TrEMBL record:
Transmembrane regions: 7-23, 29-46, 58-75, 81-100, 112-129, 135-157, 169-191, 203-223, 235-254, 260-280
A single Gene Ontology CC term: plasma membrane
Mode of membrane association: Multi-pass membrane protein
Location (main, coarse): membrane
The protein, known as: DMT family transporter
Protein keywords: Cell membrane, Membrane, Repeat, Transmembrane, Transmembrane helix, Transport
SUPFAM superfamilies the UniProt entry points to: Multidrug resistance efflux transporter EmrE (SSF103481)
UniProt-listed Pfam families: EamA
Chain ranges of the EamA domain: 3-127, 138-276
Compartments where located: Cell membrane
Length: 289
């Protein structure tokens, strides 16, 4: 739990740093590539290839490709379409994806998750009810792509860790995670990147260095380690703890003129969907016991 709480505090600033200093100014594909490269460099010196079998290495690389490489590609694009508070609010769907993926792995189906997701979509509409356009909904869908990738990575990492020795020194194998992310980030930049939109100020380079070395390098290692030490319910709840933390940082420091009443109303509707989801899970647990 301490890992997850620490990373939540760390990542709370990342949304605003991207939205304020990078989005629309620095090519998003380059930003993703640099973050992944720096994070990979943090762990390459510790890498011990012999600790994992071939399939295990490929599995960890695949998780990195999805949870970091593909997720970041979606994530950075969302800031070109949405404000920072909107991006934060729409990440609230990740716990539902985690629950649905668990259902998929165990051969279950729980219709209540679809109801709560629709209620959360209503909350998203309230936030921009007088200005909903194609760009807004496209941004909403892009964030969901990022959410789904993040959820797949977390659930997959938990499953992989369950099949490995509990004494495994994860810092000696986690480099494979970032190598997998690089497999996505490098081709994406080469194919779609804009070399004319590289960082131009020391502040932008500094933000990217912080995001790569600390938020990505240290952050993803600590978060995934935390994910293996708690149950799925706690992990889902902690995925949402980032939302209020990030909103507080953005609204207090960078965005004091935001439409707070509408933002709060939409957030309350989305929170109601989460409460309904939590209530149903508790009810089901009581019925089973």
């Amino acid at each position: 739990m301490g890992y997850l709480m620490g990373v939540t505090a760390l990542w709370a600033f990342s949304f605003s740093l991207i939205g304020v200093y990078l989005a629309g100014q620095v090519d998003s594909y380059f930003a993703v590539l640099l973050r992944v490269t720096l994070a990979m460099l943090v762990f390459l010196p510790f890498l011990r290839p012999g600790l994992l079998r071939g399939k295990q290495r490929l599995a960890l690389m695949g998780l990195g490709a999805i949870q970091l490489g593909v997720m970041y590609t979606f994530f950075y694009q969302s800031f070109l379409l949405l404000s920072v508070p909107e991006v934060l609010l729409f990440t609230i769907f990740t716990p539902i994806y985690i629950a649905l993926l668990d259902d998929l792995l165990f051969g279950r189906f729980t219709p209540i998750y679809l109801v709560t997701a629709l209620l959360a979509v209503l909350g998203a509409g309230v936030i921009r009810y007088d200005g909903v356009d194609s760009g807004f909904w496209m941004g909403f869908l892009v964030v969901q792509g990022a959410n789904l990738c993040f959820a797949i990575g977390q659930v997959g990492y938990r499953r992989l860790a369950a099949d490995l020795p509990p004494t495994l020194a994860w810092h000696n194998v986690f480099g494979w995670f970032f190598i997998g992310a690089m497999v996505v980030a490098l081709p994406a930049y080469l194919l779609f990147g804009n070399s004319a939109a590289l960082p131009t100020t020391s502040l932008q380079w500094g933000v990217l260095a912080w995001l790569g070395l600390v938020a990505s390098g240290v952050g993803y290692f600590a978060w995934n380690q935390g994910a293996t030490k708690v149950n799925a319910g706690t992990l889902a709840i902690m995925n949402n703890a980032l939302v209020p933390a990030g909103l507080i940082v953005n609204l207090v420091i960078w965005n004091r003129d935001a439409d707070i009443p509408r933002l709060l109303l939409g957030a309350l509707i989305i929170a109601a969907s989460l409460w309904l989801n939590h209530w149903w899970c508790q009810r089901r647990q009581v019925a089973v016991s």
